Amino acid sequence: MGIPDAPFVDRGDAGRRLAERLAPYKDERPVVFALPRGGVPVGAEVARSLGAPLEVVVSRKLGAPDQPEFGIGAVAPGDVRVLNEHAVRVLGIPEDYLEWVTERESAEVERRLRLFRGDRPYPDLEGRTAILVDDGLATGVTARAALRTLRRMEPERLVLAVPVCAPQTAALIRPEADDLLCLIAPTDLKAIGLWYESFEQVPDEEVIRLLEEAGHRAGPES
User: Fold this and answer.
1) Is 61-115 assigned to CATH 3.40.120?
2) Along the 222 residues of the chain, how does pLDDT read in single tens digits?
3) CB–CB of 45/32 below 8 Å?
4) Which are the contacts of 49, defined by CB distance < 8 A and separation ≥ 6?
5) Cα separations (Å) of 62 from 37, 55, 115, 131, 175?
6) Which CATH number fits domain 11-59+125-218: 3.20.20.70, 3.50.50.60, 3.40.50.2020, 3.65.10.10?
7) Do the beta carbons of residue 16 and residue 45 sit within 8 Å?
8) CA angle, 49 then 30 then 172, to 5°
């Protein structure tokens, strides 16, 4: 749960407000890519407003030894791996651990892709704008990996859009995207959920439902 009087009521509210700022991209045949699970309700509202297809790109954090919540990197489709070299060096993380956790999380990426997308190919992004959406950026490591995957698909423009982000993270990740949109950048971010009144977990079933609804709405030729 979030806190009362937070800037965003829930992810749907955040998505609608984000969509207002993304309206200038509507004529660029955008494709919205959301990071599951929390980014999908946000992305669904953006896709609905822009009349764009909704897709997912899965990125998984690489947790440190004995501190799985502390991200030392991330992996994404296409053998993309991003490492926090400073953290790896300071923590003295051995290469064999990096290879092990990379293999494990890469397998989870593939499992989730099959769950959420089946065997459907990604749309051709030639001449189109790809918009990556999440519910917020703390360290931003999973978004960085996802952006690199999307960059390999060669969109005309690559945009990262989030309701809330840490300013230092925005500065770090900005070179990965052509445009970056963050509605709120608090200097003391603490946790993403604090900026939402309601910040419930998003189950896999909800992700699948939103993707199916978007697919029916957009139709096969979007």
Assistant:
1) no
2) 566 788 999 999 999 999 999 999 999 999 999 999 999 999 999 999 999 999 999 999 999 998 888 889 999 999 999 999 999 999 999 999 999 999 999 999 999 999 999 988 999 999 999 999 999 999 899 999 999 999 999 999 999 999 999 999 999 999 999 999 999 999 999 899 999 999 999 999 999 999 999 986 654 444
3) no
4) 16, 19, 20, 22, 23
5) 17, 23, 20, 24, 22
6) 3.40.50.2020
7) yes
8) 100
pTM here?
0.93
Domain positions in the chain are: 11-59+125-218, 61-115
Rounded Cα distance between 148 and 207, Å, is: 23
Beta strands 157-164 and 129-133: pairing type? parallel
Q: For residue 41, give the nearest of 65, 74, 19, 25 by alpha carbon.
A: 19
The bridge status of strand 67-76 relative to strand 80-83 is antiparallel
- The residues pairing with 132 across neighbouring beta strands, listed in sequence order, are 33, 160
Contact assessment for residue 101 and residue 58, using Cβ atoms and an 8 Å cutoff: no
C-alpha 172/C-alpha 137 separation (Å) is: 11
